[in-house]
Design goal:
four-stranded antiparallel β-sheet, three-stranded antiparallel β-sheet, mainly beta
């Protein structure tokens, strides 16, 4: 999971109205753009927050593979100042659970 893909640091302002991007990156054996059940995704401080606003396929890291690029609500993610990790939970379309973390700096 990559919050604010391409940024050196993923800085979030707690309780802001920002809607930054996050990406689930595809690999040679995993197509995030077609295999992830986007309706199942939750993201935030605990990983169970309903903060995902929208998702679409996009190559966010320049490897010519479609990744899953989503927008999320920082406020709905329930982050607090000092948080250093964001958690993503969900499942694939075949029902397999997925979990990921991203390094963040919450101010």
């Amino acid at each position: 999971v990559d919050v604010k893909p391409g940024a050196d640091k993923s800085v979030l302002i707690a309780d802001s109205n920002a809607k930054p991007p996050l990406a689930i990156l595809s690999t040679a054996g995993f197509d995030a753009s077609t295999e992830v059940d986007t309706a199942s995704l939750t993201f935030g401080r605990a990983g169970s927050e309903a903060s995902i606003l929208s998702c679409a396929g996009a190559d966010v890291n320049g490897d010519l593979r479609l990744d899953l690029s989503c927008q999320f609500s920082v406020r709905s993610g329930a982050f607090v100042e000092g948080d250093l990790t964001a958690k993503l939970k969900g499942k694939l379309l075949n029902g397999t659970p997925i979990f990921g973390t991203a390094d963040v700096i919450v101010k």
